[in-house]
Write a structure and sequence with these properties.
Length: about 160
Amino acid sequence: MSAAEEKLAELGLRLPEVVPPLAAYQPAVQSGVYVYTAGQLPMVEGKLPVTGKVGAEVTAEEAKDLARICALNALAAVKSVAGDLDRIARVVKVVGFVASASDFTGQPGVINGASELLAEVLGDKGVHARSAVGVAVLPLDAPVEVEVQVELTEA
């Protein structure tokens, strides 16, 4: 078990199975020393635990927890191509999308769920640049979606 997975266990979490693609794409691809994940929805055992817009059907706090799930799914996708989470030299960038009610402006706080999880699990290597964007709708009516770009150490 990698140090990152041991840290997840300390937090009471486990790395999930890679979420299968919903369309014509790969969950993650490696190019050189970088891994780029596809947008990760907060899928748990093949299902979205909650659907709807943040600020309407979904609270900001619920969405923040969903962003944590997205980050876990992203780590699983990274491991699927890198082989070991301990190969992560650093998380370079996180892009978060929040399906938002028209008056909701708390996207950064929602995506903090993903950012904070990555820092908890990876320490300084998990601190990253980030964008948090409000959108009208996401696939399957998901409230949040997160993609991650990481740099790997040499194999």
